[in-house]
Amino acid sequence: FEFLYENGEFYFIEMNTRVQVEHPVSEMITGVDIVQEQIRVAAGEKLRYKQKDIVFRGHAIECRINAEDPFTFVPSPGNIEFYHPPGGPGIRVDSHIYQGYRVPPHYDSMVAKVISYGDTREQAIRRMRIALSEMSIQGIKTNIPLHQELMQDARFIEGGTSIHYLEHKLADKSEVKA
Can you give the residue ranges of the Biotin carboxylation domain (predicted)? Predict the structure, then answer.
């Protein structure tokens, strides 16, 4: 089940019977491999955890890397001419691409997820900044520059942003250009 919490109210959004695209964030802060647990349960094994066993530790951030223009969001299919994923402590990359891979025009434009973990929010942000600076995907446009900009934004760094944060940030940027 997915809920939105805004202005002191919970709103039901959806129920999915699949693993959520953002599951790596939950995995990073709980230490639970959600996919492994789903496979074990599907194979008839007993779930190894009770709710009381799940403890949140640290902070995690996920940046979804899409094959699209970073500011117009126009899709950017094409050939990956060079690919270098980031690494290091607290960094996870989930991706299916490789040098020579062709990003098709008719499917989801997500080509990678970069997840950073830190004991504090500040550490997670610092690690994500470094990871995004190390990541290189050439041959197509990606939204990496947008993520880099967001990781420098004072409102994001302070925290407490709403679900309208990106919408407002992009609108503010448009007004500055006009």
Answer: 1-171
Instruction: Measure the CA–CA gap between 61 and 137, rounded to whole angstroms.
Output: 20
Residue 97: what pLDDT?
98
CA-closest candidate to residue 83, choices 105, 70, 101: 101
Residues 6+ apart with CB under 8 A from 141: 67, 68, 69, 70, 76
Q: Would you list the domain boundaries of the chain? A: 1-57, 58-168
Long-range contacts of range 142-145, CB-CB < 8 Å, 24 or more positions apart?
A: 142/65, 142/66, 142/67, 142/68, 142/70, 142/76, 142/111, 143/64, 143/65, 143/66, 143/68, 143/69, 143/70, 143/73, 144/65, 144/70, 145/70, 145/71
Task: Quick: pLDDT tens for 102-148.
Answer: 999 998 999 999 999 999 999 999 999 999 999 999 999 999 999 99
CATH T-level topology, domain 58-168: D-amino Acid Aminotransferase; Chain A, domain 1 (3.30.470)
pLDDT at position 178: 62
Best CA proximity match to 145, nearest among 42, 79, 72, 92: 72
pLDDT, mean of residues 55-81: 96
